[in-house]
Automatic annotation (TrEMBL), chain A:
Keywords: Cell inner membrane, Cell membrane, Membrane, Protein transport, Translocation, Transmembrane, Transmembrane helix, Transport. Belongs to the SecD/SecF family. SecD subfamily. Forms a complex with SecF. Part of the essential Sec protein translocation apparatus which comprises SecA, SecYEG and auxiliary proteins SecDF-YajC and YidC. The chain crosses the membrane at residues 368-388, 395-415, 421-441, 462-488, 494-516. Residues 352-521 form the Protein export membrane protein SecD/SecF C-terminal domain. Its main location: membrane. This is Protein translocase subunit SecD. It comes from Azospirillum oryzae.
UniProtKB/TrEMBL annotation, chain B:
It is found in: Cell membrane. SUPFAM superfamilies: Multidrug efflux transporter AcrB transmembrane domain. The gene is secF. It comes from Azospirillum oryzae. Keywords: Cell membrane, Membrane, Protein transport, Translocation, Transmembrane, Transmembrane helix, Transport. Residues 113-297 form the Protein export membrane protein SecD/SecF C-terminal domain. One of its GO terms (cellular component) is plasma membrane. It comes from the Bacteria. It is a multi-pass membrane protein. This is Protein-export membrane protein SecF.
Amino acid sequence: MLYFSRWKIYMILATCIAGFILMLPNFMGRDTLAALPSWYANTRVSLGLDLRGGSHLLLEVDMATVIRDRVEGLVDGARQQLRTANIGYTALNAGERAVTVQLRDPAQAAEAVKALRQLASPVGRTALGGGQPDLDVTADGDTVTVALSEVALRDRATQAIEQSIEIVRRRIDETGVNEPTIARQGDDRILVQLPGVEDPDRIKRLLGTTAKMTFRLVDVNADPNTGRAPPGSEILPSAEGDRYQSKYVIRKKVEVDGATLQNASAGTNPQTGEWVVNFEFNTAGANRFAEVTKQNVGRPFAIVLDNKVISAPVIREPITGGRGQISGNFTAAGANDLAVLLRAGALPAPLKVIEERTVGPDLGADSIRAGLTAVVVGFVLVCVYIIASYGLFGAFACFALLINIVLTLAALSLLHATLTLPGIAGILLTLGLAVDANILINERIREETKKGRGVFASMEAGFSRAYSTIVDSNLTTAIKMALLFIFGTGTIKGFAVTITFGILISMFTATVLVRLMMVTWLRRTRPATLPV
Amino acid sequence: MFHLRLVPDNTKIPFMNGRIAGLVVSAVLSLASVFLFFYPGLNYGIDFRGGIVIEARTPQAADFASLRHTLTGLDMGQVALQEFGSPQDVLIRLERQPGDDAAQQVAADRVRNTLAEAVPGTQVRRVEAVGASVSGELFANGMLALGLAMLAMLIYIWFRFEWQFGFGAVVTLLLDITKIVGFYAITGLQFNLVAVAAILTIMGYSVNDKVVVYDRMRENLRIYKKMPLRELIDKSINETLNRTLGTSMSTLLSIIPLALFGGEALQDFGIVLIFGIFLATSSSIFIAAPILLFLGENRLRRGTPTDAPAGNSPATTP
């Protein structure tokens, strides 16, 4: 164990030097980094939100709404199919995940099933074709049930969450947050991490708005205050800021869908000076808008956002250019936010924030300072103790400890791992645990020396005997940390990461590197006794 | 050349004389801890219970009485205010608000706004709001991690040593963990994800400690074929005493700064780890070893003195 071949020595030294070079960008200023090649400048540890400040939001997609929307769509589809097929029914009801039809004539059941099956579309299709129908249509006497299949529900959920992530990403990009992380978590959750965001209020508001916009006609014949809307219409409240009316009776039929919007921007009306949102349709939307406005000159046309009427201006003349303006007594921020929402598109279902963790940037800076202080003080304390206990060999161990920190940082930088406050605690704890190897070795050498062995024999025995114990104790810690990494969340994972790296690296620094130092010293000085 | 020794070399402390006392004291403390776990119970943090934590810094020293009055006026259940660090730093904890996960958000925003009105210039430095479904999952995951860690340790030691060692280590670990839980109950420290990390760390540390002492026992079992188990265990503990205490010392020294400068979250972590190091060190000597003595007599020492071919002098391995 005491012999090191030349190339092995070079390898060990090269590892240490490479580690030192790799961790350097962490401590460079912005200007220095800019001058370096990007692959090198980018080998840096990324700081967790708890250290750099920022907001962590966990969002949940409201899957119940997703399913309900699909079922409501099915009701419309079923009505149409039955009418086309000339099948009479007495009731058509939407359930939780199924539509039931009561037929007037049970004899038509088979015919109804056939007609309703046409509503199904294949899901779970692969490149090879195949796929299953998303609906189960069954008949029982005069009742026909159209149920969403399990596969369909899952497929719909996946679609909804993927679509939501896309919309969330677009909305956040619009706000100009740097390096946001947006990731799917589990079946119905989206994790959003926003570095540097101190007050996530605006983003929470943006993400909490579904932004489903529709253009619909106002039912002018009905009185919104009666509390009852005629069939085909509904009573909707007006958005805040509407000066004219608090409630409107709005036709259910969507004349133009907000999905056909191509662009939107905030601006001011040159005449009144108030904030407005200018929008622009794509070709299909523009044609439709022109047609509707042509047919309904003189009637109020409601702009509905998430079931609230933003405004209901009277159409003065046909609008054929595909451009329009929404004025709803906006503030500058309100107009801007609406423009952002319209540009990014509507969410397939409402999102709820179910977890928020926000850290202000100066608390983050305080934490970094506290963490660094703790690491430096911890390092000094451990070194003083270990040198007092083992003299020169203790000093070797301390040097190895320093290299351990350097290599741990290098490993984290290479992997772009995230350093969190618990991660710093992990580095600190590694200091204590890593010298355990040296304590084991030194105690063993001391024992062997006491038994009257020679210098080289004692060293040899010390290292080889202690080795299995060192492997054992490090492995048990590594197992624990793997579990913490798998089951922990957020910043606590950082603890598992640094401690695992620190301990694995200590197998190199505390044994191989220290052995090299001790052997070199031994060969140079040829002492008669060991200083332990 | 002077070297610091925590204990002199060649100690011959008869630790096994205190085997009954050690086990009894440990069992009593653990039982008391289990009792404390149910009554008064743990102070679960927001990770596990849901709720809201807001850390604010007021422009001048905070007026706690008026702050408490203002926040209690919001009618959002119990509001706990705590000073930490400097007199300007206030930690506000609210219990989980009735309603769904989104209700926490609404409440957190209300507190933020109220603070801004009541004490202008207040800086909200940290906000955490966790709903019931998230906290439920975090708790389940935390407990799962602890359970699996326990199992992993049992399997690991079972593979590495004879079953008596594995049994001893796991029983000791159970006794250790109950006492840590008891420590949380007595001190009222927040029991959260950081606490799970602390328990896992102490478990790892405690098992390390046992492995080192067990390793030495096994080695001595091979060398001293005739020595009675009790004497052998004492000898092994004494031989590894300097290492055991040395490592405890170095780990302690690395953690003390955490307890001193770690800030709100890590301070608790540091304090619990310090307790855990004392616990793990003492349990290696006073619990893991006696269990092995009870289980191992006549088993680990199957070869009785009469048929030991190794002779009278201790055999040495090359």
